[in-house]
């Protein structure tokens, strides 16, 4: 199973871009990179995912390196409401049952301050 | 609005008591999941279900049981065999388990406390 490494915490000033890194050096060729975030005491919220190309949606941008061993989630204009734990997840490959699930690590605690 | 509901928001359990956490979804998703989250930790998979009347153990299934009698419902029972049940429990769903591109939708969670 591919695992991810993220810094435990990061700070960002309100209005500035937040760049959250993730290492996934053992990722397999058909595994996607997912980003979720969790605001305190709530369920995780999907942000974005990608395979090899950079992706952008209304919430964020995802930059994946050419060798796919790392990625960066970019929140272009961070607000106070973006304070949360951000999880970088590589979709675990299907096991004997043919099913695949997500494996959440400890994530990065992003603190956006005024 | 479509989504996942969990109830109750807070649940108290006495020693030796079984308790059941509710999870309902109206997204017409086939697959449903239960996770446990301890303070400062990531989510750990307890059980998951691909389809009605089918479910599989996750990484930490001991002391838990589930049922999937209806597509929209996936209740989790925390039995007395679970010696450290205090945690935040999250239910999730996806259209199916087979696709690598499918995102998970999460409920608001139930916080279980042992008295």
Radius of gyration of chain B: 13 Å
Terminal residue distance of chain A? 39 Å
Query: Percentage of helical residues of chain A?
Result: under 10%
**Roughly what fraction of the amino acids of chain A lie in strands?**
35-45%
- SSE ordering of chain A: EEEEEEEEE
Numbering strands along the chain, what is their spatial order in the largest sheet of chain A? 1-9-8-3-4
Query: Helical segment tally of chain A?
Result: 0
Supply the key terms.
heterodimer, A: 114 residues, mainly beta, five-stranded mixed beta sheet, four-stranded antiparallel beta sheet, 9 strands, 0% helix, globular, B: 115 residues, seven-stranded mixed beta sheet
Plain-language structure description:
The complex is a heterodimer of chains A (114) and B (115). With 114 residues, chain A is mainly beta. Chain A contains no helices and nine strands. In chain A, strands 1-9-8-3-4 form a five-stranded mixed sheet, with no helix packed on it. Chain A has a four-stranded antiparallel sheet with strand order 2-7-6-5, with no helix packed on it. In chain A, a hairpin with a 4-residue loop joins β5 and β6 (61-64). The relative contact order of chain A is 0.34. Chain B is built from no helices and eleven strands. In chain B, the strands form two sheets. In chain B, strands 2, 4, 5, 6, 9, 10 and 11 form a seven-stranded mixed sheet that branches. In chain B, strands 1-3-8-7 form a four-stranded antiparallel sheet, with no helix packed on it. Chain B is globular, with a radius of gyration of 13 Å. At the A-B interface, β4 of A face β4, β5, β9 and β10 of B.
Show the helix and strand layout.
The complex is a heterodimer of chains A (114) and B (115).
Chain A: E1 9-13, E2 18-23, E3 33-38, E4 45-50, E5 55-56, E6 61-64, E7 70-75, E8 84-90, E9 108-113
Parallel strand pairs in A: 1-9
Antiparallel strand pairs in A: 2-7, 3-4, 3-8, 5-6, 6-7, 8-9
Chain B: E1 4-7, E2 10-13, E3 19-25, E4 31-37, E5 43-51, E6 54-57, E7 64-66, E8 76-78, E9 87-94, E10 105-106, E11 110-114
């Amino acid at each position: 199973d591919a695992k991810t490494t993220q810094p435990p915490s990061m700070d960002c000033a309100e209005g500035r871009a937040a760049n959250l890194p993730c290492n996934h050096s053992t990722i397999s060729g058909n595994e996607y990179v997912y980003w979720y975030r969790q605001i305190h005491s709530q369920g995780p919220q999907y942000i974005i995912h990608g395979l090899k190309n950079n992706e952008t949606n209304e919430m964020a941008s995802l930059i994946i390196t050419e060798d796919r061993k790392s990625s960066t989630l970019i929140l272009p204009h961070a607000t106070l409401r973006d304070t949360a734990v951000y999880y970088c997840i590589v979709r675990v490959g299907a096991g004997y049952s043919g099913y695949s699930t997500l494996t959440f690590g400890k994530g990065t605690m992003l603190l956006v301050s005024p | 609005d479509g989504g996942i509901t969990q109830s109750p928001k807070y649940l108290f359990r006495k020693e030796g008591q079984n308790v059941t956490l509710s999870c309902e979804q109206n997204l017409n998703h086939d697959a449903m999941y239960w996770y446990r989250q301890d303070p400062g930790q990531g989510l750990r998979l307890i059980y998951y279900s691909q389809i009605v009347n089918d479910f599989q153990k996750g990484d930490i299934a001991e002391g838990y049981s589930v049922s999937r009698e209806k597509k929209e419902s996936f209740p989790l029972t925390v039995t007395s065999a679970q010696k450290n049940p205090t945690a935040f429990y999250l239910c999730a769903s996806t259209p199916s388990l087979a696709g690598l591109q499918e995102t998970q939708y999460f409920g608001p969670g139930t916080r279980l406390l042992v008295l």
